[in-house]
């Protein structure tokens, strides 16, 4: 790939020469071509003819599934499985067979449009945010291909991925009465203790699914969050918690602790063998349910009520919001949720602090009055 540049009445042919392996910047070589543009065009054709044509026979799908994923050894198992699922189900069926050196931005744009219209398991289309994540994965893989000089430039840099739709930063939540109504409606379910536990601790779905009986400290009335279980590629995969601060202990109230003790007794009565490493929540076959099971139970119950529709994850927001509105210190709420910093908790839930703005105005006025 080359182009002609004119500087001070002289022409130059600039030839692309791959990426610098250290800095990652593109390398170009300037060839003087004299004062005649025709001579410059002749030199450009000669350079293009002499320059070896890319002979990469590797397809995009094959490169991403082998070479690119092979460089991601530091990924957690759930993340690696998610990337593999993304390649196998979203990328490979659409553009995976295209050679790396033949891939064009228009191919990527067509892929993104099809994912929005027909992507997903039920072919109902993916959200723009999901398609944007796929674009970023493809872009990262093609950056590697360019660095290894398998392609001249990264076509994903010139593609036009969809922009995620703007969403309100205020999470959807229930008030205390609505949460109580949900818990009363869900009380008849066999796995009700799991839903009760999420509502009373604000833990994430993967953290709930990752609980073992060794994580429960009855004497201290506390629960340790040390692992997660995620549904990936049709199976449940165990992995570490989301972040360093996600590894935490959550204090339990007396009613929640008693409910978990009753749940353990019920499992033993049903014939389950309870060991320290046994998952806390088991289905009727004494197997670990998929994390999707909890979301499905949640949706099934809310559909039978007149409650506002929220997501399973919004139980976590509801738990935090009720604590903040009750005046619990932000640092305590942050540690309970496993947030990296109390500032994030404040930014997410500060709109719920009762009378915070009015109190600030009153305090400032008092400072000025006292100074007089």
Question: What would you say this structure looks like, in words?
Answer:
The chain is elongated. Residues about 50-55 have low confidence and may be disordered. α7 packs antiparallel against α9 (about 255-270). It has about 375 residues and is mostly helical. The protein starts with a strand and ends with a helix. It is about 45% helix and about 10% strand. A hairpin with a 6-residue loop joins β2 and β3 (about 25-30). The longest helix is centred in the middle third of the chain and has 20 residues, at about 130-145. The protein has three domains: about 1-50; about 60-160, Tyrosine recombinase, N-terminal domain (DNA polymerase, domain 1); about 175-350, Intergrase catalytic core (hpI Integrase, Chain A, Orthogonal Bundle).
Question: What's this model, at a glance?
Answer:
Helices cover 47% and strands 12% of the residues.
**How large is the radius of gyration?**
29 Å
The tally of strands reads 8
Tally of separate domains: 3
Question: How does the overall form come out from the CA principal axes?
Answer: elongated
User: What is the strand arrangement across the widest sheet?
Assistant: 1-2-3
CATH topology of the largest domain: hpI Integrase, Chain A
The CATH class of the largest domain is Mainly Alpha
By CATH, the superfamily of the largest domain comes out as Intergrase catalytic core
Distance between the termini: 74 Å
| SSE topology string | EEEHHHHHHHHEEEEEHHHHHH
What is the beta-strand fraction?
A: 5-15%
Please count the helical segments. Answer: 14
Helix content: 40-55%
CATH architecture descriptor of the largest domain: Orthogonal Bundle
* pLDDT < 50 runs, ≥5 residues: 51-55
Overall pLDDT confidence = 86
**Which structural category do the helix and sheet elements fall into?**
mainly alpha
The major β-sheet equals:
3 strands, antiparallel
């Amino acid at each position: 790939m080359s182009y002609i540049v004119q500087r001070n009445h002289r022409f130059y042919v600039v030839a692309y020469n791959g990426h610098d392996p250290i800095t990652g910047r593109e390398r170009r070589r300037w060839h003087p071509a004299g004062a005649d543009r025709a001579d410059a065009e002749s030199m450009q054709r000669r350079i293009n003819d002499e320059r070896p044509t890319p002979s990469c026979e590797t397809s995009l799908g094959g490169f991403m599934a082998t070479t690119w994923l092979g460089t991601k050894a530091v990924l957690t198992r759930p993340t690696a499985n998610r990337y593999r699922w993304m390649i196998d189900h979203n990328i490979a069926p659409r553009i995976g067979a295209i050679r790396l050196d033949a891939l064009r931005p228009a191919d990527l744009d067509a892929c993104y449009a099809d994912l929005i219209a027909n992507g997903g398991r039920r072919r109902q289309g993916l959200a723009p945010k999901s398609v944007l994540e796929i674009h970023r994965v493809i872009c990262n893989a093609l950056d590697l291909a360019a660095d290894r000089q398998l392609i001249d430039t990264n076509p994903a840099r010139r593609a036009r991925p969809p922009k995620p739709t703007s969403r309100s930063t205020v999470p959807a939540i229930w008030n205390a009465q609505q949460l109580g109504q949900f818990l009363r409606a869900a009380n008849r379910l066999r796995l009700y203790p799991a839903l009760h536990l999420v509502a009373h601790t604000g833990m994430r779905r993967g953290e709930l699914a990752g609980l073992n009986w060794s994580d429960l400290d009855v004497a201290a009335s506390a629960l340790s969050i040390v692992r997660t279980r995620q549904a990936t590629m049709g199976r449940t995969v165990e992995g570490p918690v989301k972040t360093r601060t996600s590894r935490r202990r959550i204090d339990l109230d007396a009613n929640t602790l008693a409910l978990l003790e009753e749940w353990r007794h019920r499992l033993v009565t049903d014939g389950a063998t309870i060991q320290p490493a046994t998952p806390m929540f088991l289905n009727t076959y004494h197997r670990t349910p998929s994390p999707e099971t909890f979301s499905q139970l949640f949706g099934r119950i809310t559909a039978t009520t007149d409650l506002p529709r929220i997501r399973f994850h919004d139980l976590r927001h509801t738990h935090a919001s009720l604590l903040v509105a009750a005046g619990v210190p932000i640092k305590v709420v942050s540690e309970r949720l496993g947030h990296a910093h109390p500032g994030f908790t404040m930014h997410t839930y500060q709109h719920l602090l009762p009378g915070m703005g009015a109190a600030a105005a009153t305090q400032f006025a008092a400072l000025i009055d006292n100074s007089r």
